[in-house]
Specification:
Strand content: 5-15%
Shape: globular
Distance between the termini: 74 Å
Length: 415
């Protein structure tokens, strides 16, 4: 009798445990199906964490408007019931002050030539947000289908926000904080607002596949000739290589940047990216001229193995032609990315650069690219041959012609 009771108790316990298991399984299935489980929330872009203090809150904010905007963009991914895959390339730019039109023209060139879809990350002062959205929304539907975009507020660590914002050009040092803000992005191309793509962003993006296991960024040298390069003649701080690097076009593996411990001249141990920036600024702020670019030069001086160099044709500036042509890769293949620093898009000092900028700015989407862009540009460039850069005018259209030839074939490259 006692054995019978023991067996009955064991069966009762086993039945209870089985019931709990079935209930647990059903509950988990409900959670994973959406039930009452965690839901993905689409909110404003992430800002710097508490390690850096609260973000600078200069200017009025409207997170509600931003939330609506994110959701609206997300909805565009479905057309006629067919869901398009997310764009695979990320492009970031920072715009403050009077840089709206220049930045929109840069974005126009990126979208015009690119093959795969683009995700645009636009960091701008609050008063520029509506203007950016209106400009991009005004583009034809067949162009808008090639990209998504998000407009972010300018954000620096609150305890040093004013110092970072005014370090060089307004807000330019925002690029240093992209790994800490875009935490869900693995890799991106950062460009200054005065960049013009004359070839698809895809070709620059392909440099990511050339990174070895350590490399986490790619940039072009500041100059090709040390005897006339700025850093080798005037820098009062360490810099990368023989001539330094120019950060106007920067390919970044943000995941690696977040995880790396960087060698430095301040501590005997490596520092993470977020630990490195402020001490570096405090040490060198009286010795740097070009702001955040100088800080990047210092970082990669001590960590050269982390950087991949790409040729100067991917960051062609007036420095490459004002003293005579000194960019061999552009002479061989043409200019792939034009960098109009020194304000040359807006004055008359380098008319060849301004001619390219005006040609792209005035081009109407959908018009014949050869008749409406290339032919007028070639004619205008012939008027610039009294300058050294104008004497090299063939370099400005050599690669551009090939890029424009691809535009009419984009229909074959859907997302």
């Amino acid at each position: 009798m006692r054995g019978y009771i023991r067996a009955l108790l064991m069966c009762t316990v086993f039945a209870a445990l089985s019931g709990l298991y079935v209930y647990s399984t059903l509950f988990e299935a409900n959670m994973s199906a959406g039930g009452n489980g965690a839901k993905r929330v689409y909110g404003p872009p992430r800002v710097l964490g508490p390690r850096h203090g609260d973000p600078d809150k200069a200017g009025p904010q409207s997170s509600h408007r931003h939330n609506r905007y994110i959701m609206r963009q997300r909805g565009r991914l479905e057309v006629d019931g067919r869901r398009r895959p997310q764009p695979s390339m990320h492009l970031a730019v920072v715009a403050c002050g009077e840089r709206l039109e220049e930045t929109v023209t840069m974005l126009k060139s990126a979208v015009l030539f690119s093959i795969k879809g683009l995700q645009l990350h636009i960091f701008a002062e609050d008063q520029l947000h509506t203007s950016f959205m209106e400009a991009l929304e005004s583009w034809p539907a067949f162009i808008r289908s090639r990209f998504n975009y998000t407009v972010y507020p300018i954000r620096f660590p609150s305890d040093n926000a004013a110092e970072w914002k005014k370090l060089f050009k307004p807000c330019a040092s925002q690029r240093l904080f992209l790994p800490l803000i875009l935490k869900d992005v693995e890799s991106l191309v950062y460009v200054d607002s005065d960049i013009l793509f004359l070839q698809p962003v895809d070709r620059l993006w392909d440099f990511l596949s050339l990174f070895d296991s350590a490399q986490l960024a790619a940039m072009a040298p500041e100059h090709e000739e040390p005897r006339i390069a700025w850093y080798s003649r005037f820098a009062r701080h360490p810099f990368y290589g023989r001539t330094g690097i120019n950060s106007g076009v920067m390919l970044m593996n943000l995941t690696r940047m977040r995880n790396m411990f960087f060698k430095n001249d301040m501590t005997s141990v490596g520092l993470r990216w977020e630990e490195l920036l402020m001490p570096l600024l405090q040490k060198y702020k009286l010795n740097i001229t070009w702001g955040d670019q100088d800080l990047l030069n210092i970082i990669f001086h001590y960590n050269p193995e982390l950087l991949l160099e790409f040729p100067c044709q991917w960051n062609y500036r007036p420095d490459h032609c004002i003293y005579g042509s000194n960019c061999a890769s552009a002479e061989d293949n043409g200019i792939y990315i034009l960098h109009g620093n020194r304000g040359v898009y807006h004055d008359h000092k380098q008319p060849a650069f301004k001619s390219v900028y005006e040609a792209i700015r005035k081009y109407s989407f959908g018009a014949d690219p050869v008749a409406s862009l290339l032919a007028p540009l070639e004619k205008q460039l012939l008027k610039t041959t009294h300058t050294y850069c104008g004497k090299s005018h063939a370099l400005f259209t050599k690669a551009l012609g090939h890029g424009l030839a691809r535009i009419d074939r984009k229909a074959a490259h859907v997302w």
